[in-house]
Amino acid sequence: MILFNGAGGEYSARIVHTSRDGVTVEIGDFNPAEKESPLAITLVQGISAGDRMDLTIQKAVELGVGAIQPILAERSVVRLKGERGDSRREHWQRVAAAACEQCGRNRVPIVSTALALDQFRPPEGALKLLLSPNGNAALRAVDVSIGSAVVVAAGPESGFSPNEEGLFLAAGFLSVRLGPRVLRTETAGPAAIAALNALYGDG
Question: Domains along the chain?
Answer without folding.
Answer: 1-33 (no CATH), 35-200 (3.40.1280.10)
